[in-house]
Structure formats: C-alpha cells, structure tokens
C-alpha cells in the first residue's frame, strides 16, 4: 500500500512538472528582435546568442548502412552579444547487405565541437539579427570505427535572421513569415594520407518559417487555441559543396519540411530529411529535436556572466 501510494505521488509530481513546463507563457524568450521571436530550427543555426541546450536525433537509410545519430550542444553567454558553445555526437551504424553479417553494428562518439558566437547586428524595426560564428572540431579525438576525421576542422560561418513584420499592411498575412540563413566553410587540416580528411567544403542553409504566435498577436487573432497557437510550420534547405580534394565540385542538398512547437521552457521539433540530388542519397530520413531554454528555467544561474553580471532571460516586450 505504501509502495502504491509512493508511486502515485511520483506520477503526480512528474505530471505536475510537465503541465507547468507546457503551460502557455506570458512572454517569449530567446531569439528576440523587435516583435519577432525566432525559434531554434533543427538544421539551420539561428542568428542569436543565448543560454540553452539542445538534443537532435537523426535517422537515415543509406546504400551501405542504417545510420542513427544523437547530437547534443550547450550554449552559454559570456556577455549580451558573445557566447561559447560545446557540442558532441554519438553514432550508431548498422551495415546493410552482405556487410551486415560480416561486420555487425558499431557505435561510438565523433570528434567534439567547440564554438564562439558574436551577435553583431540587431535591428528591432526590421526584425533583423546577424551573428558571426566559428567552431573548431579537433581531429582524432572521436572513435575511428564511426568514421571520425583525423584532422582538425575549422568552420567559420555567418548567420542572418529576418522577419517580415515591416511589410506594408496590404501584405498582412505575410508578416508572420521569417527567414534564417547560414553560410560558411568547413576547412580541414589533414594529418594522414586519407584524401577525404583534407577536403574543404562550402556549407549553406535556409529556413523559411510561418509564425502562428506572430499571426495571432500582431496581425489578427484567428482563434487558434493552445497548443496549436505555438506552432511554426518550417521548411529548411541545406547542403554543401566540396571545394577541394578528389570530390571537388560535388554537391549535396536536402529539403527538411517540419513543425516546431515552442513552450515557455522548451521546444519540440520534427522534420523529414528529403534528398534533392543523387549525391545526397535516395531515401528520406527523419529528424527530431528537444531544445531547452536554460535562462528561463533558472535565470539567476544560467544567465550569470563573468563581465556583465546576471543578464536574465531574453524576453519579448510585453
């Protein structure tokens, strides 16, 4: 009897926490410029610095194997415009065909990733924000059996977000649209004889989203109720072009249609990953994301900075 009562208490506590976390919020945090709130998207990096953590899982069927990846990243502000990031990923590879019986499944960690982000532009009137970022992935740290690179990869990038709330009134229904873009390079230092380790690449991504919260709050309340009033239909496009090495000139491109749902303390997102050319593959993959707003969960802890004190969460004006 005591055990049953304790179990019900635990369930009630977990349910209570879940309900509190999912409750509608009075304001929006993260990715705020002017009246616009930009959600984090799965594939394309947003153009803001913040205190947050994310977990992305992807699954793809390729000609040689089934590939599942879990990627985690945490971002911490050092000042209102500067943040550091730390990321890592874990791969599970299951060979297909004859190799399945000979090799069996394998798994392991890839090289880690360290980054620095600086937000250098924020224009409230035009809902525009821009960030310069650079990340470094030291080679040879991860496990060879999952294909980690032996050389170090340096990845500079420029990320820009633009909302269209400044359109004229005749285009009211387009004002909830926003676009984020990211362009950059993967510059690789080769430390062995493998040519693929030294291939440099140009990387790009574009996310086009429609904000139901913006529509309801700033254009017209069309009566969409919670939880659907926190949805963002999103289509992301991303790819890369090899600019050196034996595959120089090779392109890959994907389209990723999906949905983002955002609460006060976290986001959930899911999308398909559709190859747009033969080099990208033939099978559609799947992506899911859990994104946690650390600065809203415990602002006095996670928004502390060494040079600017406690910044507090980034909140949309009410």
How does this model look, in words?
With 318 residues, this protein is mainly β. Helices cover 14% and strands 46% of the residues. A twelve-stranded antiparallel barrel has the order 3-4-5-7-8-9-10-11-12-13-14-15. Strands 1-2 form a two-stranded antiparallel sheet. Mean pLDDT is 87; it is low at 1-5 and 15-27.
Low-pLDDT stretches: 1-5, 15-27
The share of residues in extended strands comes to over 45%
Shape: globular
Query: How is the main sheet built?
Result: 12 strands, antiparallel, barrel
Output the radius of gyration. 21 Å
List the helices and strands and how they pair.
Elements: H1 2-22, E1 32-33, E2 36-37, E3 52-61, E4 65-79, E5 82-95, H2 98-103, E6 106-109, E7 113-123, E8 128-137, E9 153-163, E10 177-188, E11 201-210, H3 212-219, E12 231-242, E13 251-262, E14 266-275, E15 285-292, H4 294-297, H5 299-302, E16 304-305, E17 309-310
Antiparallel strand pairs: 1-2, 3-4, 3-15, 4-5, 5-6, 5-7, 7-8, 8-9, 9-10, 10-11, 11-12, 12-13, 13-14, 14-15, 16-17
Key features?
318 residues; disordered N terminus; 17 strands; 12-stranded antiparallel beta barrel; mainly beta
In short:
It is built from 5 helices and 17 strands. With 318 residues, the protein is mainly beta.
């Amino acid at each position: 009897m005591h055990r049953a009562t304790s179990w019900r208490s635990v369930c009630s506590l977990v349910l209570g926490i879940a309900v509190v976390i999912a409750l509608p919020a009075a304001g929006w945090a993260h990715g705020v410029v002017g009246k616009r709130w930009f959600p984090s998207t799965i594939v394309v990096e947003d153009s803001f610095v913040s205190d947050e953590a994310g977990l992305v899982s992807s699954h793809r069927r390729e000609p040689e194997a089934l590939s599942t990846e879990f990627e985690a990243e945490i971002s911490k502000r050092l000042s209102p415009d500067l943040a550091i990031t730390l990321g890592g990923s874990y791969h599970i590879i299951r060979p297909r065909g004859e190799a399945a019986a000979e090799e069996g499944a394998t798994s392991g960690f890839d090289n880690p990733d360290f980054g620095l982000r600086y937000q250098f532009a924020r224009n409230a009137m035009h809902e525009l924000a821009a960030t310069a970022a650079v990340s470094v992935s030291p080679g040879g740290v991860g496990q060879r059996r999952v294909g980690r690179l032996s050389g170090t990869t340096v990845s500079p990038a420029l990320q820009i977000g633009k909302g269209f709330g400044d359109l004229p009134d005749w285009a009211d229904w387009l004002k909830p649209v926003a676009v984020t873009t990211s362009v950059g390079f993967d510059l690789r230092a080769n430390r062995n004889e493998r040519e693929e380790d030294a291939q440099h690449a140009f990387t790009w991504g574009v996310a086009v989203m429609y904000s139901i919260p913006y529509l309801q709050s700033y254009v017209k309340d069309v009566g969409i109720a919670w939880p659907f009033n926190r949805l963002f239909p999103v289509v992301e496009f991303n790819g890369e072009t090899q600019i050196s090495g034996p595959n120089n000139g090779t392109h890959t491109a994907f389209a990723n249609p999906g949905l983002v749902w955002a609460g006060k303390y976290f986001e959930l997102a899911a999308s398909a990953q559709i190859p747009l050319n033969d080099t990208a593959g033939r099978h559609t993959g799947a992506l899911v994301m859990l994104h946690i707003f650390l600065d809203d969960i415990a602002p006095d802890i996670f928004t502390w900075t060494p040079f600017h004190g406690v910044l507090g969460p980034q909140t949309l004006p009410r």
